[in-house]
Design goal:
Elements lengths: L1 H37 L2 E6 L14 H7 L10 E6 L4 E5 L5 H11 L4 E6 L5 H4 L15 E5 L1 H9 L3 H6 L3 E5 L6 E2 L4 E7 L10 E7 L2 E6 L12 H6 L3 E5 L21 H7 L5 H4 L2 E4 L12 H8 L3 E2 L5 E3 L3
Parallel strand pairs: 3-4, 4-5, 5-6, 10-11, 11-12, 12-13
Antiparallel strand pairs: 1-2, 1-14, 2-3, 7-8, 8-9, 9-10
The protein binds zinc ion (ZN) (2 copies).
């Protein structure tokens, strides 16, 4: 009888112990996923060069796939920084595909709303989406638009952009190179100058920082060698690096002088980054593809680049920032 009672007591205690373990593990997992749910993330809203995919007047095989209904469009390069805890979204560049990208955000981050826009430069793929904020469309009120000094003057002194300023649709927020802007107590953004064809404005890339986690965004740069910083050092300092992948190689645009539109060719970047350890290559995600670049669609070249350890940006990709 005593034995039986003892055995029941042991079974009860074992049950209680194992019962207590599972909820604790669940709680920890819940806590982790809960903190992830509230951590900011970067959402890829577009991957194409300024002119998008397909490109106007394009009769190439690559574009025919779209005109014949075999491929869907690719939006112009843009990323969104979504912060669920403050229910805010900051866009990096306002592209000609702004309306579609805003709609993507409504689906992917329904509880957050557009809080501000950081501009990289005054080439058509990077700011002309601002027109959607104007009188004829959204009629926004004092939306924060962060811009460098020449970019600010360009918007203030040229129509139709000056109307956005004069009507109070946008509120220009001055940026200085290498000076960070605090978006929340944990989240900051720092612009830095990069060499590019600066006809109307300077060109910047951005570094997004959340606690110990950081991301580099450089959609346009002439050549890595022209920069006064070593790209490898900059990659080393961050967790993610979204880099200019406009052209695959030097033969991509027959009939165009490609030295007039310099970008680091994917092939050049692959050679340059070849000696980096795999852990560094994995940080790199190429973006801003010309319509002629095979990386813009599923292709053997895309598979090849991914096999080497790099990432190739796709619309809807989400990069989670963690403390
Ligand atoms: Zn561009
Ligand atoms: Zn550009």
């Amino acid at each position: 009888m005593v034995n039986l009672l003892l055995r029941r007591l042991i079974i009860f205690m074992l049950g209680a112990c194992s019962g207590a373990e599972t909820p604790l593990q669940d709680q920890l997992a819940d806590k982790q996923s809960n903190s992830q749910r509230h951590s900011p993330f970067v959402l890829i809203l577009g991957i194409a060069q300024d002119a998008g995919y397909p490109q106007a007047n394009c009769e190439k095989e690559q574009c025919k796939k779209y005109w014949q209904g075999e491929e869907h469009a690719r939006y112009v390069s843009s990323i969104a920084l979504v912060d669920p805890s403050s229910q805010s979204v900051w866009l990096f560049d306002a592209t000609p595909d702004f309306k579609h990208q805003l709609q993507m955000l409504k689906i992917q981050a329904p509880e957050s709303s557009l809080t501000g826009i950081f501009l990289t430069h005054a080439h058509i793929g990077h700011y002309t989406g601002l027109m959607q904020l104007g009188h004829e469309v959204m009629s926004a009120s004092d939306l924060a638009v962060y811009a460098m000094p020449k970019m600010t003057t360009f918007l203030q002194t040229n129509g139709p952009w000056s109307q956005l300023v004069n009507y109070g649709n946008i509120s220009l927020q001055p940026l200085q190179a290498d000076q960070f802007i605090n978006l929340t107590s944990m989240l900051s953004v720092t612009p830095f100058l990069v060499p590019h064809r600066d006809e109307y404005s300077e060109t910047v890339g951005y570094k997004i920082q959340y606690g110990g986690s950081s991301l580099l965004y450089i959609p346009d740069i002439d050549k890595w060698e022209k920069w006064d910083r070593l790209i490898e050092n900059e990659i080393n300092k961050v967790n993610f690096a979204l880099l200019d992948g406009t052209f695959y190689d030097a033969n991509e645009l027959p009939g165009r002088n490609m030295s007039e539109i310099p970008h680091p060719f994917i092939q050049e970047s692959l050679v340059r980054f070849n000696s980096l350890p795999l852990s560094e290559k994995k940080k790199i995600m190429f973006i801003h593809f010309n319509h002629t670049n095979p990386l813009i669609l599923d292709s053997p070249e895309r598979e090849y680049v991914e096999k080497l350890g790099y990432r190739v940006a796709k619309e809807g990709d989400k990069i989670q920032l963690t403390m």
